[in-house]
Fold Transposase IS116/IS110/IS902 C-terminal domain-containing protein.
Amino acid sequence: MVALAFISTIDVPSRFRNSKAVGPALGLTPALHQSGESTRVGRISLCGDGMMRTLLYEAAQVMLTRVKKWSWLKAWAMNVAKRRGQQKAPVALARRLAVVMHRIWIDGTKFHWTREAAQIAI
């Protein structure tokens, strides 16, 4: 469901210069509030498609809580949760999922659960 919604939301993957640009387009990056000398990093910007953002967040939440099999993505998100908190980890993982899905779509590669499997495939 998430992959189908991602394909219909992004539509043309080549309109992004790199895969990291997908996160801000979906509103999954922090908003900056600047005034004079003060700069404050706020919550996520919420621009872009809200339904796609919700689906990515739910997929990230399920990956963190329900999926028993460990992957390099889950390990990365758990490290984020340890450093930044339990509430920020699903949003960071949702952004990372969007980047990974875009890169897979552009390259046509397959997702590997572990880094070792990716090294063997190369």
Observations:
- The chain has six helices and two strands.
- The mean pLDDT is 87.
- The chain has one domain: 2-29+46-121.
- Strands lie at 30-35, 38-44.
